[in-house]
Please model this.
Amino acid sequence: MTFPGILIEPARASDLTAIGALLGEAGLPHGETELAAARFLVARQDERLVGAIGAEVFGSDALLRSLVVAPARRGGGLGGELLRRLELAAGPWGVDRWWLLTTTAERFFSARGFRVVPRSAAPASIRGTGQFTGGGCASAVCLTRSREEPA
Model:
């Protein structure tokens, strides 16, 4: 899928503030320290961030975090494309399994093969992240699936 005028690329260190703002606008967790620990891809339109997705990698497991698309760009497939691109990037990182928490996007991820599991099913490295230990995600659903090699 192509998105005219949108460039998807690895985030720059200078993007953390804009990623945090985009996440804040969407009501998603965005602690600066946690953002710095993640590997992000961003979607840019005219140098403005319109989407982002990140991963915290722990060996073969990774916490998929912070998938966000600007309100004006939602519903057009950009979120799915960001996930596809992260899957491609994660192959060389050695990722075999994704984990995530969500309070709002269970249907989005379920439609992409993720399944709900108890939080206790996640490895200790994932359960020890700020996403799992922070009070803001106490009601979030835990989902997982194997990393897929995009076509």
User: Anything to note?
Assistant: The chain is about 30% helix and 30% strand.
